[in-house]
Amino acid sequence: MSSGENNGGKSGIGFTGLLTILFIALKLTGVIQWKWVWVLSPLWISTLFAILIVIIVAIVTVVINK
Q1: Which of 48, 52, 64, 66 has the fewest CB atoms within 10 Å, i.e. the most exposed one?
Q2: Residue 19, in any domain of the structure
């Protein structure tokens, strides 16, 4: 496999990363006066959403296998 081949993988920063960078830039330039917990909220909200999905899938799997 040469280094120039496209393996079909996804790369990039994504929407959440861009939104976080935007919020950080706005906070550091003084455009917004939010607390840091809200500036970084795209990171923790998306993490909580992923954890919630894993919990729901686990519960459904347990219920189906009974």
Answers
A1: 66
A2: yes
State how many domains the chain has.
1
- Which string of b and e fits 28-49 if b means at least 16 CB within 10 Å? eeeeeeeeeeebebbeeebeee
46, 16 in Cβ contact below 8 A?
A: yes
Cα 47 from Cα 40, distance rounded (Å): 11
Domain assignment present for residue 51? The answer is yes
Q: pTM, whole model, 2 decimals?
A: 0.70
Q: Can you give the pLDDT at residue 61?
A: 95
Other C-beta atoms closer than 10 Å to the C-beta of 7 total 6
CB 38 within 8 A of CB 20: no
